[in-house]
Amino acid sequence: MARVCAITGRRPRSGYNVSHSNRHTKRRFDINLQKKRLPLAPGISMELKLTTRALKTLYRKGYLRTT
Fold first, then answer.
1. Using CB atoms within 10 A of its CB, is residue 53 exposed (0-12), middle (13-18) or buried (19+)?
2. Whole domain around residue 25: which residue ranges?
3. Which of 2, 18, 32, 58 makes an SS bond possible with 63, Cβ 3.0 to 4.6 Å?
4. Per the confidence metrics, is the pTM higher than 0.90?
5. DSSP assignment of 1-50, as one string?
């Protein structure tokens, strides 16, 4: 499965490593994905890949509870 956030749709970005001599080589900026089991309804849950930014927003808005 692709490295994409299920809620925000964020994907890895590409850019350059820049050395001290100013040489540019391609690199990839990966996102911080975490697998999280989210409750959809009583007794029903689903495991999603979410970025930590999306998880933080879900906790702050009250959709998830800390245990």
1. middle
2. 13-61
3. 58
4. no
5. --S--TTT----EEEEEE-TT--EEEEEE---EEEEEEEEETTEEEEEEE
For residue 45, which amino acid is it? S
What is the rounded CA–CA span in Å between residue 56 and residue 60? Answer: 6
**CATH number of the domain to which 44 belongs:** 2.30.170.40
- CA dist., res. 52 & res. 31, Å (int): 9
Question: How far apart are the C-alpha atoms of 7 and 9, rounded to whole Å?
Answer: 6
pLDDT tens profile 31-67: 999 999 988 888 999 999 999 999 999 999 988 877 6
Residue 5 belongs to some domain of the structure: no
